[in-house]
Amino acid sequence: MRLRVLGILSLFSILVVAAVSASILASVSRELTQELQINRVATLNRFAQVADDATSSGDSNQLQREMARYSELYGEGIVVRTPQTTLSSGGVSADQREVRDALARARLNLNDTTLEPLQPFGPRSEVIARSFGTANQVLGAAALDVDLGAAQQKLRERWLQVLLGAFAVWALLLVGAERVTAWVLRPVHRLTAAVVDFEETGRAARLREEGPPELQRLSSAFSTMAEHIGASMQAQRQLIADASHQLRNPIGALRLRADLLALELETSAQRAAAAGVTSELEHVEEILDGLLRLAAAEHRVQEGKAPGRAGPDFDEGARPLDPWTVLQEAVERAEPAAFRAGARLVLADPPEPPVRISCNSMDLSDIIRELLENAIKYASGANIRVSVSEREGTVTLEVADDGPGLSADELAASTTRFWRSPQHRDTRGTGLGLTIVERLADANGGHLVLTLAEPHGLVAKVEFPLYEEAANA
Asked: Among 162, 166, 265, 290, which one has the highest count of C-beta atoms within 10 angstroms of its own C-beta?
């Protein structure tokens, strides 16, 4: 944006400087032309007067001497045509086309004493002429071949001065435009950065109120809005965490009472009903446990916990670890559940050489556990392949199955809280698993990627930056 604004201002300043410079240059040209014209017309008038006197006396010697002296001093040719003769000096001949035409017009009493505006690189000479005689009769004409070289050189020098001055003014305008643009856009850039930070972390520092008054008011309004939204989001997260925590005790007590009540029941129908109540209570406990874990993960993301720092709800901070080892342990723990569901777990060989990532080990265990539970639960009877790979500085933990998979629309909504696929409505679950995985990955500097497998199935990838000793020494 800064370059675009500077480009527009630069173009505008160039147009302004060019217009002013063109006006100044035209004025300089007119001034020098007028000065030269006044001087040369006066000279021409004098020679016309001398020629008129020579015509009256019949003696043209004095006229010839003055013409020769003038041509010697100023390097300009003169041609005077009287009724008796034609005189010339300075190497100019009456037979030259410009001189002949000028004299012919003068003999018709059409005086041509106006010079064309000077151009720095135009013709180096121009002929002016006028007639002399009485009011009723034209006796002759005088023509002066005006040398424009000196005036053109002076004009070029003036043009150079004007152009240098225009360039200096344009540079000053450009510097001023850059300062003004920076002054105007600085709060805009800070506001943009604050919006991006607010989008990523849910927090935004209060912006400094600077720049134009309108942007100051905008910065103040955004800071106030961000504070209110951040406080509201924090209150919502805290409410979810508190409510989940507070509900665990009464639900636990209710389950204990249901278990005690089941012991007193006599008929199988009554015991089946009690078992249903216990199952629903277990489902509620799963949801509450998921909400607590989700609230903890979102709190860590919102607080901007970087890898290598301990989270508020975990004893162990992020540290370099071998993800394949954690993956192997998770697969071993999940094998009984996979066997009961008819699924087959396949753990790929570890990458060579071994790779490491910087991650909280408990978080990584939870991520892999959730992905394995999802695959076993919703792709029963499928082959589930688990692997770790590294490519171009990115370590990928992959859990892929050849189950029914999801549609493209379902895939886009799969990380939404409490979302469940319509084809799995009868399968017990909370709809929080992939949301928790996504938040835990974000809290540890990674991200979750879900894709469709070919010809069917789901591929869940969690990507982390490769931990390198040299980069962290």
From this structure: 290
What's the order of all strands across the beta sheet hosting 86-89? 86-89, 77-81, 138-147, 125-133
φ and ψ of 159, to 5 deg? -60, -40
Residue with tokens 């064309």: 116
pLDDT confidence of residue 128: 93
Mean pLDDT of all residues in 10-14? 83
Rounded to whole angstroms, the Cα distance separating 78 from 67 reads: 7
Q: Identify which of 441, 214, 216 has the alpha carbon closest to the alpha carbon of residue 206.
A: 216
CB 82 within 8 A of CB 154: no
Rounded distance between C-alpha atoms, residue 143 and residue 78, angstroms: 6
Short-list 342, 363, 372, CA closest to 464 = 363
Concatenated DSSP letters of 112-156: B--PPPP-TTS-SEEEEEEEEE-SS-EEEEEEEEEE-HHHHHHHH
Question: Do 343 and 275 share a structural domain?
Answer: no
Under 8 Å between Cβ of 209 and 219:
yes
Q: Give the domain range for residue 262.
A: 213-302
Check pLDDT > 80 for residue 317. no
**Separation between Cα atoms, residue 248 and residue 69, nearest integer Å:** 121
- Total structural domains within the chain: 3
Bridge-based pairing state of the strands 383-391 and 344-347: parallel
pLDDT digits (tens, 9 = 90+) for 371-411: 998 888 888 788 999 999 998 889 999 999 988 888 888 88
218 & 255 share domain? yes
Reference 328, options 381, 397, 395; nearest CA is 397
Domain harbouring 397, CATH code: 3.30.565.10
Distances in Å between the Cα of 242 and the Cα atoms of 10, 113, 238, 311 are 58, 101, 6, 18
- Between the alpha carbon of residue 175 and those of residues 13, 171, 183, the distances in Å are 11, 6, 12
The Cβ-side half-sphere exposure at 21, using a 13 Å CA radius, reads: 19
Alpha carbon distance 461, 448 (integer Å): 6
Residue-wise pLDDT tens digits, 447-465: 999 998 888 889 999 999 9
> Cα separation of 259 and 278, whole Å?
7
Q: Measuring CA to CA, how many Å separate 74 from each of 70, 96, 144? A: 6, 20, 11
3-state secondary structure of 96: coil
The span from the CA of 79 to the CA of 144, in Å, is 7
